[in-house]
Amino acid sequence: MLFFNQSLLLFLGLSSSALASDAPDGPAEDPRLAHPEEGVYTGPLADGGNWKHAFDKASSLLAQMTLPEKIIFATGHKGPCEGNIPGIERLGIPRFCIQDGPTGLRFEGFVSQFPTAHTVAATWDRDLMEERGKGMGREFRGRGVHTHLGPVTGGPLGRSPLGGRNWEGFSPDPFLSSVASYITVKAIQDQGVITSLKHFIGYEQETFRTARWRINGTVQTFRQISSDIDDKTLHETYLPSFAEAVRAGSGSVMCSYNSINGTHACENDQLLNTILKKELAFQGFVLSDWDATWSNMSSALNGLDQTMPGQGFSIGGDFGATLVDLVNEGAVPIERIDDMVLRVLTPFFHLGQDKHFPDSPTNEPRDLTGGLLVQGNESDLQFDLTDDIPDVQGDHWKIIRKIGEESITLLKNTHHSLPIKRSTRRLAVFGSDAGPSLYGLQSCGTDNYCHDRSRPYFWPGTVTTGAGSGTAWAPYVINPLEAITRRARRSYTGHTQVDWVLDDTAYDYINITATRAEQCLVFVSSFAFEGYDRDDLSLWNDGDRLIETVASHCAETVVVIHSPGPVLMERWIDHENVTAVLMAYYPGQESGNAVTNVLFGDVSPSGKLPFTLGKSLEDWPPQGIIDELVDQPNATFPEGNLIDYRYFDANSIEPRFEFGFGLSYTTFEYGKASVKVKHSKDSKALQPTNEKFEGKGGLYDQLYVVSIDIKNTGRRSGSEVAQLYLTFPSSTPSQPPLLLRGFEKLHLKPGQTKTAHFPLRAKDLSVWSVEKQLWEIPEGELVVRVGRSSRDLGEAIELPELS
Ligand code: NOJ
Predict the structure, then answer these.
(1) CA 153, CA 182: separation in Å to the nearest integer?
(2) Which domains can be identified in the chain, with CATH numbers?
(3) What is the DSSP letter of 492?
(4) Which of 191, 455, 648, 724 has its CA 20 to 30 A from that of 670?
(5) 405, burial (CB in 10 Å: exposed 0-12, middle 13-18, buried 19+)
(6) Given 289, 504, 644, 649, which residue is catalytic?
């Protein structure tokens, strides 16, 4: 694993109590000073947009603040949460608690471990995306968290399948990611919790993600990746889901560790001021990723509103008194400071956080490696998971289980191997991924980085989530073996024996047990974590060999995969004894129950792949993760818009399983798609953007609706995800052959027919003109196709001309 030490140091650095105030103030060179002719503030000042009432409230408080009080809102402080803003008692403004992360509350006890974003994306079910968001919002609010550090709305999007944090985001497809981002933001904020979209932007690899670590109190600088993204690719691939999440009214955006086109993301005037705040008309606050601030003045001028972790902690710019001085020297205009305060306070008032907001449970300082630091001594870390904290889980286990069931994607099912038949008498379960964690729920520390002296990183049981700030401790984990055993007892009492081998390499036992079994269920996984990219796309723990070993003895071998993204299956996918394969992603605490309900046929699988499964790493665009040891590593994004299936399609590469693919236990018949011109004004922008559009009406207005009837022709209930793909006229530059532009999941009883509708908005049919700096619908024939996956589509329909 490359750069193991550097990444490790990042975490040690963050967790060290030696987070002292001797941090240097970023690099010596300040672009503003180096280019005095640019030394004016170009950014827009917030006006509250649709949040006028809240903006006025914030303005009247601002009028009563001194300069040092204003700076409070721009500066993180030590406290019980991951990020803390102390508030101002005399003005009745409480301490703000800012907390990770995108799958649930990080390092808290008695909270839910939700399925990850890529798992809910695999359901393609808008209602489940919403329920998940609501559940998370309720838990964060219940624990007094004002700002939720999530969701991941496109940074990473998933440019490289090796990306260590891809599982924290929804999908490498911008449309699927956009839909999920909008819904998730709205659902969380509807619970009164601000979302912070991350990581803005171009944060597509962990390797070289940040260039500074504090080692024994000294800051050392290493290489830092710059994501060099052209304007067209940025607008068409990486920006859309941020734009949707801004439209959903997100109150915050987190700027990322990486540089963009050579400038740090958190002091990037073009990205923060011009694109985010002017073009997307973002009215909330930009908060830095932890230690992603490199300067005070440049960051303040170039669009950063709140630096984290802040005073006395940050390695780079840490605002506080420095910003007071910069204002007094005339280097940063007071209007910019006022703007920061208004941007922080407006979402606070808009979401009603000034009224009856629960307290965060404690004021005790929290250590980043050990939960709550009760003793001040680092060597004496203790978890303080007292019972004296509100139970916020409600019945979220139900939605967690449902998402687990609905995401599971059936990739292969020969000889009707699944669902497991009632007549099956001898089942055997294999793999460490089927069993409990050997050391318990919280044994791997706050962030689930499990390592010991003999093994650098591993996961000692069934994989339900990844590691890093995107993880959440589960209150319990139902592992597959436990759930399968219980299910067998319930329905098959006296008829079914469930045997197992959980040691992945105990081949003697595996051979004997597999030989005796009628049907074998092999659980394999791949683990991913923040700070590292994956080395390759192979299964962990010798998973390929485990599958081959079982399959060589067992005529019905069913493979279940828990994975953060693509894995390679070539060694065994065509093995005649591998009769069924399920992709189960990272489903959270109800993992075993969800997969069991699908295996035994209580639920028909209906998930579809939110990414492509290739046959070799070389199938994906080259230059994915840049790891060369050069002074300035640059990721140049040479593939442009052609990531994931778009690259496979454009280069005629046969995937193993295509984007959008997934089988069912039932069968569906598609009718003939039809299209209607149906204009309606955009009604979904909670905060409208300022994106320019050359055409009639608004960029987000609906122009057409495509419809298709789908019938369940089988004998079981089931759900089908119908998908719509667009093809631009061949004369349109830089476009892939197909772009997902609509989907609907229909739940159908046997014999039932329902109609799927795909509204098409102007933006869905537009491309970004770099020359004119606006969106436009290209001249020529626009064609759509509807079908079951990106490679199983019906006939082409030309969209009629608009009058
Ligand atoms: C760094 C991670 O990149 C970010 O996602 C997280 O929210 C912060 N640390 C705070 O934990």
Answers:
(1) 9
(2) 40-350 (3.20.20.300), 397-635 (3.40.50.1700), 666-798 (2.60.40.10)
(3) H
(4) 648
(5) buried
(6) 289
Q: Ligand 1: which atom is nearest the Cα of residue 149?
A: 7
| Confidence at residue 420, expressed as pLDDT on a 0 to 100 scale | 95
Ligand 1 atom nearest 470 alpha carbon: 5
Q: How far apart are CA 402 and CA 397, in angstroms?
A: 8
Candidates 198, 469, 471, 533: which one to mutate for ligand 1, based on the most atoms within 8 Å of Cβ? Answer: 469
Distance CA 704, CA 700 (A): 12
What is the token pair recorded at 267?
Answer: 């002091």
What's residue 98's pLDDT? 96
Note the pLDDT of residue 645: 98
Instruction: Scan for tokens 């981002």, then name that residue.
Output: 181
**Would the pTM of this model clear 0.90, i.e. be above it?**
yes
Q: Is the bond leading into 161 cis (omega within 30 degrees of zero)?
A: no
N residues, the chain: 803
Place of tokens 């791997």: 444
DSSP letters spanning 110-141: S---PPPHHHHHHHT-HHHHHHHHHHHHHHHH
Three-state secondary-structure class, residue 435: coil
Coil/strand/helix, residue 422: coil
- pLDDT 10s digits, 759-773: 999 999 999 999 999
The upper half-sphere exposure of residue 14, i.e. CA atoms within 13 Å in the direction of its Cβ, equals: 23
Say whether 289 is catalytic. yes
Q: Is residue 436 within 8 Å of residue 148, measured between CB atoms?
A: no
Q: Which helix (H) or strand (E) holds 769?
A: strand 767-769
CA of 106 to the centre of ligand 1 (A): 11
- Listed as ranges, residues in the chain with pLDDT below 50 are 1-39, 363-384
Give 3-state DSSP helix, strand, coil % of the chain, rounded to 5: 25, 20, 55
At residue 570, φ and ψ (nearest 5 deg) are -60, -30
How many angstroms from the chain centroid is the CA of residue 2? 23
pLDDT of residue 40: 65
Closest by CA to 332, choosing from 302, 310, 312, 306, is 302
**How many other CB atoms sit within 10 Å of the CB of residue 308?**
28
CB 569 within 8 A of CB 593: no
**pLDDT, position 494:** 64
The residue whose two tokens read 């667009």 is 726
According to DSSP, the residues that pair with 88 across neighbouring strands are 93
Helix (H, G, I), strand (E, B) or coil at 673: coil
Q: How many CA atoms lie within 13 A of 309 on its CB side?
A: 22
Q: How far is the CA of 290 from the centre of ligand 1 (A)?
A: 6
Could you tell me which of 710, 713, 716, 715 has the C-alpha nearest to residue 746? Answer: 710
| Cβ-Cβ contacts under 8 Å for 395 (sequence gap 6 or more) | none
Protein residue closest via CA to atom 3 of ligand 1 = 289
Measured CA to CA, the distance from residue 531 to residue 44 in angstroms comes to 34
Place of tokens 């050579």: 262
Contact between 750 and 715 under an 8 Å Cβ cutoff? The reply is yes
CB 97 within 8 A of CB 80: yes
DSSP, res 362: -
